[in-house]
Amino acid sequence: MKRSRIREEIFKLLFRVEFNDIEDMPAQIAHFFEDPCLENEEDDASSDQEVIEEKDALYITQKYERIVKLIPELDAQIGSNAKGWKVSRLSKVDLTILRLALYEMKYDEDIPVGVAINEAVELAKKFGQDESPSFINGILAKLAKSTDNG
Question: 3-class secondary structure for 46-104?
């Protein structure tokens, strides 16, 4: 499975945090991987309609769990760089994308900062509102400057 597809699945799983209590998330994770719609439902039949393999499911789950543990820290950094926006007022899609991208920028040494930003913008184009890609890009650019220094 391509990294961009794996990232999209992490985003979808992480998005569920906004709508479920943390103690309900193990069941949500189980439902997530049982969902027959995990195949690339938007694309035509000739595209990559792959099922999530066990190794990819493990990677997705582990990365999701690492991000969830850091949500308070990630949200604090996002909030300090989203001038004029409280984290609680951000769209749930944008916030989830920002959390995932910031995690990748700060904690995932396998992913270059530029790739994390570009992939976040692509997620915003697919799942966000019209202004989401430029908003996400702007916040992540500020965060990239601050993470370069520390």
Answer: CCCCCCCCHHHHHHHHHHHHHHHHCHHHHHHHHHHHCCCCCHHHCCHHHHHHHHHHHHH
90 Rama sector, left if φ>0, alpha if ψ -120 to 50, beta otherwise: beta
Residue type, 24: D
Q: Report yes or no on whether pTM surpasses 0.70.
A: yes
CATH architecture type of domain 3-148:
Orthogonal Bundle (1.10)
Q: How far apart are CA 24 and CA 12, in angstroms?
A: 16
Spatial separation of the C-alpha atoms in residues 14 and 61, rounded to whole Å:
10
Q: Where are the domains of the chain?
A: 3-148
pLDDT tens string 64-100: 999 999 999 999 999 988 877 888 889 999 999 999 9
